[in-house]
UniProtKB/TrEMBL annotation:
Pfam families per UniProt: FAD_binding_2 (PF00890)
The keyword Oxidoreductase is annotated on this UniProt entry: yes
Cofactor: FAD
Source organism, top-level taxon: Bacteria
Biological classification of the source: Bacteria, Bacillati, Actinomycetota, Actinomycetes, Mycobacteriales
TM ranges: none
InterPro entries the UniProt entry points to: FAD-dep_OxRdtase_2_FAD-bd (IPR003953), FAD-oxidoreductase_2 (IPR050315), FAD/NAD-bd_sf (IPR036188), Succ_DH/fumarate_Rdtase_cat_sf (IPR027477)
Designated name of the protein: FAD-dependent oxidoreductase
């Protein structure tokens, strides 16, 4: 480097003609060794490029290795077929367009669905194991090592009648999972990291990307990173791939773009500080869906399906047997982060007898009451607010129906006798889904609509499939799928 080392405390691009010495020279630099990064590195290496991964922490994995491991795949994957589920790319696209909208990138949805079967086979060929067993119960994840589950509300209202329901949450097999710490996502990352090692891909750990380096034509030709406080200039002859994750841990960006997540726990890792987005923005990149977020609610799906959820006014607002992430979004984004779960004694006992992957969501109820009127008073609701809701629910439940929200008959039963109520106000966490806008080749798009030469991105620093809604598996899904594209595109210029 020059006598005066370049600043690492700004996201402004650095001019290549000011770099006196390149510390490392490769064809493709991948920033971030999570799911998008590993897939990009593998495909870039297979396309003949000399690849270097820069990773800020001391090991591979990122949020992906902590994740439950759902990868949203369909259209007739080998696993779906082995378990007797019919699906087509068109059916999958119809569902995703409705569930991930409004405002999805339609070309991306169709491209992803069309390539989904091949992507599943690619993962399997890289050594990702999937057990041919289906888990059909409500839950956040399969409790054991089952490989396939509904993970987006495909088999619940309002999607049930829109597209033929098919389970698409593919989970890598992992018998010793510890939810939230080392789960199915670890068994996605491990074989992929081994594949990358087998290809001879170089990695620099404890090395953090700080700035992009551009030539006189504004083409990205390298990155300025830092390791243990020392700047490192890395030249990338063919391209740079940003795969540094979301902005879930940047409080200012959260306040600016997704304020409802402010103060909520982030379902991510602290390294998700939005750096990839800001570096690309500083070069004029377009952003998309910066307000979109995944939201988890800390409720047990087996209890929610059997009970009813009401808001702070005692009214039902969401189909309780749907994907719990859809419930989380409804609570945080549309009900002021307020929800109460009400269930009767018989259904509660039934629910507690079921197997769950998330036993920590089974805690004692906040209130127990003999009558609805008593519970209503305990909850501090105006007289009749809850009584009216439960009377209407029970009236139709007598006939196994839920004409208000369309909960499936198998979960509908009148609430009778003693009632338990869980106060779920403020019980949400989430991560961000917006980021730089990319095309189908994972090229980062300038606000003019043109690609920014030499710059590619994938994973949660990009706006992927999700525009507003979410399904479990969309992040590892689009991160791996468009990570591959980013690697291929970067390697081929
Ligand atoms: C508990 C939990 C469960 C989840 N379950 C699921 C699930 O089942 N299915 C699903 O689809 N999603 C799930 N997610 C979300 C999913 O894990 C992430 O959205 C996904 O990993 C994002 O992929 P990525 O490649 O963008 O980021 P990551 O996989 O996190 O990789 C980003 C990498 O970049 C590194 N990095 C950051 N900044 C820099 C820098 N300046 N320089 C160099 N490296 C840097 C990070 O350290 C990290 O290793 C879950 C998340 C959590 C926390």
């Amino acid at each position: 480097m020059s006598q005066q080392p370049p600043r690492t405390d700004t996201v402004r691009p650095l001019r290549a003609n000011t770099v006196e010495h390149w510390d490392i020279e490769v064809d493709v630099v991948v920033a971030g060794y999570g799911i998008a990064g590993v897939c990009a590195a593998i495909e870039a290496a297979r396309a003949g490029a000399n690849v270097l991964i820069l990773e800020r922490t001391g090991g591979w994995g990122g949020a992906a290795a902590l994740a439950g491991g759902f990868i949203y795949l369909g259209g007739g994957t080998g696993l779906q077929r082995a378990l007797g589920f019919d699906d087509t790319p068109e059916n999958m696209a119809t569902f995703l367009t409705a569930a991930l909208g409004p405002g999805v990138d339609q070309a991306k949805i169709e491209d992803y669905c069309a390539g989904s079967v091949e992507h599943y086979e690619w993962l399997v060929a890289c050594g990702v194991p999937f057990k041919a067993e289906f888990w059909g119960e409500p839950g956040w994840e399969p409790p054991h090592d089952e490989g396939l589950m509904y993970s987006g509300g495909e088999n619940a209202a309002p999607f049930l009648d829109l597209a033929k329901p098919a389970p698409r949450g593919h989970v890598p097999q992992f018998a010793e999972k510890k939810i939230g710490r080392r789960s199915g996502g670890y068994m996605l990352m491990k074989p992929l990291a081994e594949t990358a090692a087998g290809l001879g891909i170089a990695v620099e750990y404890d090395t953090r990307i700080r700035r992009l380096i551009v030539d006189d034509d504004d083409r990205v030709v390298g990155v300025l990173a830092s390791t243990y406080g020392k700047p490192v200039a890395v030249r990338a002859a063919r391209g740079v791939v940003l795969a540094t994750g979301s902005f879930a841990y940047d409080t200012e960006m959260i306040a600016r773009y997704t304020p409802k997540l402010s103060g909520r726990p982030g379902a991510a890792i602290e390294e998700h500080d939005g750096i990839g987005i800001r570096l690309a923005q500083a070069l004029g990149a377009e952003l998309a869906h910066m307000d979109a977020s995944e939201v988890a609610v800390f409720g047990d799906p087996q209890l929610m399906a059997r009970g009813i959820l009401v808001n702070g006014r005692g009214q039902r607002f969401v189909t309780e047997d749907t994907y719990p992430g859809r419930i989380g979004q409804a609570v945080l984004l549309h009900q002021d982060n307020e929800a109460f779960l009400i269930i009767d004694e018989k259904s509660l006992e039934q629910a507690l007898d079921t197997v769950t992957a998330t036993p920590f969501f089974r805690f004692p109820p906040t209130w127990v009451a003999e009558t609805v009127a008593e519970l209503e008073a305990e909850m501090g609701l105006p007289a009749q607010a809850l009584q009216t809701t439960i009377a209407a629910y029970n009236q139709h439940a007598e006939h196994g129906a839920d004409p208000l929200l369309g909960k499936k008959p198998e979960w509908v039963r009148p609430l009778t006798g003693a009632l338990a109520c869980y106060d779920l106000r403020g019980f949400t966490a989430g991560f961000t889904l917006g980021g730089v806008r990319t095309d189908l080749d994972s090229r980062v798009l300038h606000v003019s609509g043109e690609p920014i030469a030499g710059l590619f991105a994938a994973g949660r620093c990009t706006s992927g499939l999700c525009a507003g809604g979410y399904v479990s598996g969309a992040s590892l899904g689009d991160g791996s799928f468009y990570g591959r594209r980013a690697g291929k595109s970067a390697a081929t210029g």
